Amino acid sequence: MKKMTIVLTMIAMAALTAGVIAADTDASNEDPPGRIVAARGNLETLSGTLRWERDEWYLSTGPGTLYELHLGPYGHREEPIFTAGASAATEGFVYGNHVAPVTVDTMGETHRFWTSDRMPLWAGSGEGGGRVAQTSPEIPLGQRLAQQQEDQAGPGQPPGEQVGPRSFSGEGDGVGTRGAPAEEVQRGFRNEPAGGGRFRN
Predict the structure, then answer these.
(1) Domain check: are 48 and 96 in the same one?
(2) Strand 56-62 and strand 42-53: pairing?
(3) What's the CA gap between 147 and 167, in Å, rounded?
(4) pTM across the whole model
């Protein structure tokens, strides 16, 4: 009787373990954040049509095949970054039906979101210490200002220390930041929910 109980217990434990492993590896049934997609995905190139559904951007590669694009704060702007129905090609990390795109080519433009080292370009302290944010117009203005402040920190000041209040009155990036103090601009681009939706990237 003891042997039978031990054997049944071991079979039950094996079945539970197999179920947990299967659930962990089935990316199509989960809704992972972008960092998980980038970490676990394989670098692939996909092409299809851009679609806007349920407050998310998708790439439709065929009938019934949708890949959710993990675009960070860019996918949650009030003004759409893409044109729905436009043809597009993306190179990125594919995990199930999710993509953390390194690039998205559409309508003659190339948009960059992740590095080939799986770092999001919107992360100011990511690869390169945010230097990519200083020159790319696709990076939120607040991050470009943060990098400029770090570059302008004088001798004896630690990098990233606030140099002083200032405003930016140059060309805006289309998100209503022109002329706003740097502190307000930076606050608007933290990983916070955009509008009433959830933010997973």
Answers:
(1) yes
(2) antiparallel
(3) 14
(4) 0.52
Number of helices followed by number of strands (H, E) in the chain: 5, 6
In what helix (H) or strand (E) does residue 43 lie, and over which residues does it extend? Answer: strand 42-53
Residue 76's CB is within 10 A of a number of other CB atoms, namely 20
Report helix, strand or coil for 21.
Answer: helix
Q: Residue 108's domain spans which residues?
A: 34-112
65-110 pLDDT, tens digit each: 999 999 988 888 888 899 999 999 999 999 999 999 999 999 999 9
Q: What is the mean pLDDT of residues 113-119?
A: 90
The DSSP secondary-structure symbol of 158 reads P
* Region of 170 on the Ramachandran plot (φ > 0 left; ψ -120 to 50 alpha; else beta): beta
Q: Which of 62, 111, 103 is nearest to 82 (CA)?
A: 111
Total domain count, the chain:
2
